[in-house]
Amino acid sequence: MGDSGLRDYLDGPYKAARDQARVGLAEHAALLSEALELPREAYRDRVLEVLRSATADGQTAQGFPKEFGGGGDLGGFIAGFETLAYGDLSLLIKAGVQFGLFAGAILHLGTTRHHEAYLPDALNAHLLGCFAMTETGHGSNVQALRTTATYDAEAGEFIVHTPDVHARKDYIGNAARHGRMAAVFAQLIVGGETHGVHCLLVPIRDADGDAMPGVTIGDCGQKLGLNGVDNGRLTFDHVRVPREALLDRYAQVDADGNYHSEIENPDRRFFTMLGTLVQGRVSVGGAGINASKVALTLAVRYGSQRRQFGAPGAADEALLLDYRMHQRRLLPLLARTYALHFAQAELVGEFVRIFGADEPDTVSEHDRRALEAQAAELKALGTWHATETIQTCREACGGAGYLAENRFATLKADTDVFTTFEGDNTVLLQLVAKGLLTGYRESFGKLDPLGVAKFVTAQAVEIAVEKTAVRQLIERLRDAVPNRADDNDSDAGLRDDTYHDGMLRFREQHMLAGVARRLKRGIDDGIEPFEVFNRCQDHVIAAGRAHVERIVLEAFVTAVQRSPEGPVRETLKLLYDLHALVTIENERAWYIEHGRLSGARSKAITSLVNELAALVRPEALELVEAFGIPEALVDVPMLAH
Amino acid sequence: MGDSGLRDYLDGPYKAARDQARVGLAEHAALLSEALELPREAYRDRVLEVLRSATADGQTAQGFPKEFGGGGDLGGFIAGFETLAYGDLSLLIKAGVQFGLFAGAILHLGTTRHHEAYLPDALNAHLLGCFAMTETGHGSNVQALRTTATYDAEAGEFIVHTPDVHARKDYIGNAARHGRMAAVFAQLIVGGETHGVHCLLVPIRDADGDAMPGVTIGDCGQKLGLNGVDNGRLTFDHVRVPREALLDRYAQVDADGNYHSEIENPDRRFFTMLGTLVQGRVSVGGAGINASKVALTLAVRYGSQRRQFGAPGAADEALLLDYRMHQRRLLPLLARTYALHFAQAELVGEFVRIFGADEPDTVSEHDRRALEAQAAELKALGTWHATETIQTCREACGGAGYLAENRFATLKADTDVFTTFEGDNTVLLQLVAKGLLTGYRESFGKLDPLGVAKFVTAQAVEIAVEKTAVRQLIERLRDAVPNRADDNDSDAGLRDDTYHDGMLRFREQHMLAGVARRLKRGIDDGIEPFEVFNRCQDHVIAAGRAHVERIVLEAFVTAVQRSPEGPVRETLKLLYDLHALVTIENERAWYIEHGRLSGARSKAITSLVNELAALVRPEALELVEAFGIPEALVDVPMLAH
């Protein structure tokens, strides 16, 4: 296998941006050990220092329009950002807060006035900013935020106010120490009428770094990880900002206090605004995948040199990675990391197509919503994958894995919150499933369970819920799957990608139809819609997950097909087979329960997974080297012996 | 439900010791927040300070004979130690190193001379000590340690030596800062002959705290967690200690250099010595279970007061714990925590019976080995459970769970290594399965795969491997299970504990027989024994796990039966049902594959699990209150709103 061929293929169209990020990371590799020893405030300042030095080469502004000092290359920007996940993750998240969230809110929710006034300074990190959305009392349910921004027509100002401690802005990056300004999400009240959540720019510190009048700043203190980011709390006591502070791309308030928005439906307006911020989810998912690559690189290298026990009388003890159990623990995660990498590359491609369009308005709302769903589902899968992979790799390195110098400590702690921020994974998968249930999420009106249940009753039922229709659908899918549960030849076709895809599609469709049927039955029985929905919540989330698994699998299929013929493709196909069969194996209970797999064939899959893992094993080192993690970042003491 | 009734029942015979530990923990509750802010060295010293103050009430010496300042109450000692896991876990582990490992090695491996000379000072923590077993190159494979202790008959001394960096003692608690003496495990060489691993007491620091001549002390530095424990590295350069330094209960060297041991077989001698140290595993498993209780107390309380989303138009948003998915995530873990608690109580009872026996020599070797296996398997299950439970609880508390003030950060980081130390869980389950395969572990000779494979070929085959015998066994078990896969009445008997037990026994026996058959087939086919064993390593470990699951289930059954009639028993039975059915549900693929479960019945189990979780939900708060965690330890900011 030509390893550089594999690496080039993984790097894809944004190779240059990734390489540029790699150079920067290698240069600042010392940050990894500084992070272990510096007191919290010093670590925060050090991260800011590195962040500022990183703005010099222009990469941090790469995704922004050229007229504001950016590079106009959205894809390169995201690829570079993801690559930062190879290094200190506080730096990654600090960059995400500053350039992705704060500058991103200005770019997407503001208009030229805001762009000109703030983007250049935001992009060179002179103006540090916060993204003040989450409150102590509301994280997932953003629409229910309780901070208010009330327009005072006489003064031509908005009054930003925190009614009580539950409405305090919480967990806000850049707030505790460095932020000068915050993009504050608040219920907009104009002329006594509430128009829902909007975003305003509110200065929070003066030039001396002191809190502005009326602003109380707290510190979230020590966190599980990411202690190089200064998360804090913001409380506003009738803080006045000029009318122009409203980021008014989607809604405007004129001097006389008239509210106007081109999007009349308040829910649609809210989700449109939120939708422009999808880049955060795209980036976090990618970062999770890349953090997994670091853990796997360390664990695969360690397993390739660490010996313990072995055949008596042999000259050496056996290498850990030659043990079946070790292969079983690590190599399916390696395969899945590749799968997610390719799914992420597809997502970024779609993101660039939509957000990088010369005429953004030509992009259909349907495509935007599809992108949002894709970002949500991949964020959930990629970040859960990181949690699982890093944990498994830590355990696979035993006591050495527990020493901070070997990187798992911070990898584990820093990525832990990825499953929570930018949307709690469980909530995200639920949203994805809801979207699938209706086909068009905008038809929901509200994203609450009542809206969904009503919608399903009214429409989805007609297309999917009738028992006959469901049965027909299932029959059709069943026929499309080459191998039936009753086949005797239980090994045949197990490495055929149309078989894998058929299995995953069958599961996805069957689960969605099952959920729809349960929702309809509940409504028909007169049960309260929220209760109906809640009773099948686990089913809904499992359906969402089944969908994402299929998307990821298909991305891997495509990536194998498009890869350079020869050793690269052969290796990728092997890894793909391992991933596909482990995915089916993980859900084999469901497949058997639903008549899609016989017991014999299920056992054959387990055997084949073991065989494939053994075939991947000799390639494992090259497979992790292809991630191209700078040597300075994985040159840890446990690998030096 | 009478909550104090439930708590009393959980506390069991060692209630007084648990309550005493609770009082001490509440008194030192400030250590939890100090741990977040103190620099490493100050934190280490603070932990030592609290440890020393804890010796004052005598509890830390509770498990030792009265003549050396102990209390002679082994069960109370372990119960108290486990309870320490409610608080700062560095304190727990520091106590474990000092009293369990260091003093424990002196007590169990030494003789009166050592007891009199060192135990009193070890028990009042004036003499801080290390347990220097693990080396950089050898953790799991203790028999292959490479530090040497060579007897110099002329001088009447042992020369302790580290031949190279791989033989350096590593990850040693108390080594980096506080330890004065180490119980060093080394290959004993007398008259040119190597007698295997033995333990000697070696002074490592003088009264001023400086390293002794020939001893080089390193610091493991920052760790993923447990940073209040000073783990370090010890290298010995021909360090001389008197002949009396050998802990000589099981083997003696006389002044002329004659080696003598009552146990002639070196392997048996080694495992006998190691077996006396089983208390460490018993304690760590219990600590893992108790750390899970802290996480569950926090998450269940949070889920019972935190609201998010909900039915539109409702006065309040819905409580997290009223969501099905939230119940599904947390309540099976709560049920399993109870199951493990009762299994642990049984283990401690057995431990006390054997180690607290007035005449220890009357305890059969078979019983000792059974205890070792039970300790190993429960350590594995209890510590993996901790990792999973704490992670799930953290995620279930969202962003609040990520703030260190809410305790998950340290709980997660500190317990992470529990799956590794005192025996890597994967290795432990493998040992358990090997023991089961042969019935008598001592028959192995060596615990290496070759020995096992040979043994299986020679003997186990006769009793279990013949196809006919296996089939008969399976048939017998099949008949013992009331509900067959082909039953139509798919709900019947699902809450019958003989059904659960039958299912788990069937799985355990079937897997063990399957492994034995594969081993035999491999050997018969002339495959190299190590390779034969390695090919079914995943199968071996799964069989070990199946065994432990059955043991834990049965402990829960017994605990329900013995509980006070009335509300306590009713609540426990409900929780037990949830645990039993989730355990079967988790392995439903296997049961269906092996014809023990129909698809319909499998789905019925999943539905019933949901129903049971909903029934447990109103009891959840009382169930966590029954753990009796001092309020000062769970009075965290996220619960104050």
From TrEMBL, chains A, B:
Stretches assigned to the Acyl-CoA oxidase C-terminal domain: 504-633
Similarity comment: Belongs to the acyl-CoA oxidase family.
Domain Acyl-CoA dehydrogenase/oxidase N-terminal, residue spans: 18-123
SUPFAM superfamilies to which the protein is assigned, alphabetical: Acyl-CoA dehydrogenase C-terminal domain-like, Acyl-CoA dehydrogenase NM domain-like
Domain Acyl-CoA oxidase C-alpha1: 275-437
Protein name: Acyl-CoA dehydrogenase
Pfam family membership, one: ACOX
Cofactor(s), names only, from the UniProt record: FAD
Keyword Oxidoreductase: yes
All residue ranges annotated as the Acyl-CoA oxidase/dehydrogenase middle domain in the record: 130-239
InterPro entries assigned to the protein according to its UniProt record, in alphabetical order: ACOX_C_alpha1, Acyl-CoA_Oxase/DH_mid-dom, Acyl-CoA_Oxase/DH_mid-dom_sf, Acyl-CoA_oxidase, Acyl-CoA_oxidase_C, AcylCo_DH-like_C, AcylCoA_DH/ox_N, AcylCoA_DH/ox_N_sf
Keywords: FAD, Flavoprotein, Oxidoreductase
Presence of the UniProt keyword Transmembrane in the record: no
